[in-house]
Each structure stands twice: as structure tokens, then as C-alpha cells.
């Protein structure tokens, strides 16, 4: 296996890995996921967190210079998905 593949960042993190990256308690992240306040993919009984969501959160916090409300980001994402569904994908 080549070293670039070994060093590639994963597409998904476990909840524990994402919580560690964000320096929060995994139970806090699980609670946010179950409440729909943080994006995740559920595979049967297991959740995985898209690395893009963690990156977006970090980028938003860096660019805004303030507190980022991930619940608001998730709500905006859900709204955009619903608009796309209702309009057949056109925005």
C-alpha cells in the first residue's frame, strides 16, 4: 500500500474520533446527533460523522471569529435539502 493512501484523511470519523478532534465528550456529540443538531450517518445502530462536517465547523469558527451554532448549520442544511427535494434539485 502506498504511503499517500495510508496518510489520507478518512471520509468519515467515528463519533469518538470526531469528539476527540473537537475536544468534546463523545456523549455530548452523541446527544447532538440524536437531537439532529450535528450531521451524521446512521448505519444500523452505529453513527459515523462526515469529516467534511468537522472541517466545515472548524472553517466557520475560524472565519467568523465567534461562536458557531452547529444546530443552526444543521437546520440550514436540512432546509436546503428540503427545498432541493421540493423543486426537483433546482435551487
TrEMBL record:
Using the record's annotation, list all stretches that form the Helix-turn-helix domain. Answer: 12-60
Pfam families hit by this protein: HTH_17
Organism classification, top ranks? Answer: Bacteria, Bacillati, Actinomycetota, Actinomycetes, Pseudonocardiales
NCBIfam families per record? excise
Name of the protein = Helix-turn-helix domain-containing protein
Recorded hits in InterPro entries, A to Z, give: DNA-bd_dom_put_sf, HTH_17, SinI_DNA-bd
Amino acid at each position: 500500500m502506498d504511503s499517500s493512501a495510508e496518510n489520507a484523511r478518512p471520509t468519515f470519523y467515528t463519533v469518538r474520533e470526531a469528539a476527540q478532534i473537537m475536544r468534546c465528550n463523545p456523549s455530548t456529540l452523541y446527544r447532538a446527533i440524536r437531537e439532529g443538531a450535528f450531521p451524521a450517518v446512521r448505519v444500523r445502530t452505529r453513527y459515523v460523522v462526515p469529516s467534511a462536517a468537522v472541517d466545515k465547523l472548524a472553517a466557520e469558527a475560524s472565519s467568523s471569529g465567534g461562536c458557531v451554532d452547529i444546530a443552526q448549520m444543521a437546520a440550514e442544511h436540512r432546509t436546503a435539502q428540503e427545498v432541493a427535494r421540493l423543486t426537483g434539485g433546482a435551487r
